[in-house]
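Example 336, ligand MTE.
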Amino acid sequence: MLIKTPKLSDLKESDVTPESVYMNRRDLLKGMGFLGAGALLAGASNKANALDWFSKDEPTKFKTTPLNYTPDANTDNLILTPESKVTTHNNFYEFGAQKHQPAELSQNFKVNPWQLTISGECDNPITLDYDDLTTMFALEERIYRLRCVEAWSMVVPWIGFSLADLLKRVAPNSSAKYVFFETLHDPQQMPGQENRRLGGGIAYPYVEGLRIDEAMNPLALMSVGLYGKTLPPQNGAPIRLVVPWKYGFKSIKSIVSIKLVREQPQTTWHKLAPSEYGFYANVNPKHDHPRWSQASERRITSGGLFARNRIETLAFNGYGEQVAHLYKAMDLRKYY
Ligand code: MTE
């Protein structure tokens, strides 16, 4: 596999997402008083402010480690998004609301020691340490499409294990109807959690949820790596969720807690704007975002700025065969 060294900021957000869309999403936060006008100018001053956080301690390049895993057969013949783009065009608001900021501001993030607790409505709650994350289950590569609600997409070779295998270990009881996920809350390390302007004013920690049958679907992946190595911080080290049939915001990063719960949990983007971001968030080309179309997407490829890479969005992001049955009895326009 070709391993490239990521070049920070080699892709501008405007290269891959129509300006109207990402400005729209930021307008929401700005309208709510969270993003100052400065944040809308993708300029050097904003970047410099953010980097002040590390003025005492210059960021060094985070070290990733090669993993042992079973390769994906890639029967869909998906063309991978280059690693340099997967790791520099990110949404991780804890490290800044602009696409280039997570890669720049997360390189000193400490992932070891780490604790991930799985608890709640189950018979055998457990806490995993950093080493458990890569040794507890046999790791497999899963090449998945990732479709962001902002209408850009990538194809990423994730490495991990099924969320279902993890949940089975704790033996959920009959009251476990939903699964609630929480990202680390550590403003010392995640500057956007304290600096509202940098972090988009989200109420941290970032939280997400799935219905138990969604969580048990074999496609739902706990990812510990990509492109053959452990995850870099900007992609959610040391462990994140990947739910390929849902918009990317469901795929919560840097998880410290997974709780089996009775009621549908509150989730970060739904709390911010319930009419725009649903709990289910299944990729649906027939249900537009109130402020932009979801019928097509811009695939981030190895091509340059003028690459013709607009493609039709697929229902359930192309995974309908595996997941459509979960929603058979539901009106997907109501449960968006
Ligand atoms: N998880 C946390 N904790 N914070 C975030 O801001 N952004 C989400 C999701 N997980 C986010 C997060 C969004 S909007 C997307 S599209 C994906 O992460 C992006 O994943 P990537 O940066 O690895 O492509």
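Summary: Residues 1-16, 36-56 have pLDDT under 50 and may be disordered.
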